[in-house]
Design a protein that fits this description.
Strand content: 15-25%
Number of domains: 2
Radius of gyration: 22 Å
Order of helices and strands: HHEHHHEEHHHHHHHHHEEHHEEHEEEE
Oligomer: single chain
Largest sheet: 6 strands, antiparallel
Shape: globular
Structural class: alpha+beta
Number of helices: 17
Amino acid sequence: MSARLNRTVVLVAAASLALVSACESQKSKYEGPYASQVAEAVPQIEKAVGLKFKTPPRVETRSKDQVRQYIVKQVSDSQAVHDLNGQEAAYKRLGLIPDTLKLQSFLESLLVEQIVGFYDPHTKVLYIVDGSPKDLVATIVTHELVHALQDQYISLDSVQHSSGDNDRQTAAQSVFEGQAVYEQISIMLGGSNIAINLPGGWDRIRDMIRESQASMPIFAAAPRVIQETLIFPYLSGAEFYRNYKERKPGSVVYRDMPVSTEQIIHPNAYFLTRDNPTKITFGTLTNATDVYENDLGEFETRLFLFQHLDDQNDAIRGAAGWDGDRYAVVNTPQGPGIIWLTVWDSPVEAGEFYDIAGRAIEKRFSTKAVTGGNSLSKKYSAAGRSLQLSTVEIGGRPVVIYEDLPAGANLNVVNTGQVKLAQ
């Protein structure tokens, strides 16, 4: 999901695994709240990242109520509302969230439940919530100071408020959060190699997040897609950044950002082949009006398959070879629906997704393809919906088209002659 979410749940687990405490505090040259923690963290961060702060970081405290007001303002911004409404409609049609869930209000509650501190790229201030646990404050300060340093070399605000390319935004967020998590833990471990010295690695952190759900009832009740997209930038991003530091020592990642979750998940897609995703333009639709467009990326394509098949191997296999996607929430004379077009590296991988996505539809709706289908197209009818899964070739590229429309609506909304694919 494109909303930038609070990282408290991840930091608590990470801090629990960092067995070496931070160095003794230096004499503070920073004024204001938590000056000693800032003074201690700044030189450690500068050394770890390889960049200097251009201006001194600012830290202020805020009450829980002020934080709630900040969160409400963030998710109530007109662009945020547009994106959240569009994503809500898409995720409901794809069966990733319940039809009863109101995404905007749910995220407000989720963020308020977790928040301890955050860096605001608009005000350039790091905020700590009044009454935050003392043993967690140093961790939050270190993590958020990394964001403050990032913001002095690349605009976090412009990245966070980009729209229409959820996958690229998640990839960028994975760099920012992954670097902050990695350096935060590395500093807590005395600057040692996380891959060697982090007990249990990222899998153990993920397990601890699951184990801590009892203390976070809203997070525990969140649909899988929300939980997993919360965690992905921190853990998968940290592993990507670990790879980056090993393969490109002394380089600055902001100057050559990954552009897809595929490049976060598969290091070779970034470091070796630089496999950038195919950009998709739908063109004119047939008997439907385009209401909202975005993409899922390889990671959320995995989540879609896993949601309905509950099989991790099938989900990974079905999303392998992803090379770009675009969905559109549409209105038809019969009501709303969704179309989703995916491009693949090879016909074999397109066929794999076509087969596994078909099984996902069958399991989700407890149905089978209706008679009359062929090897290139499958049609389904269930729950007042008409669905179609098709394999086609566009511009010499293998493509799979997923359509979910109200019963009675004309399928084949996508005019393949007008679809444009570009690198």
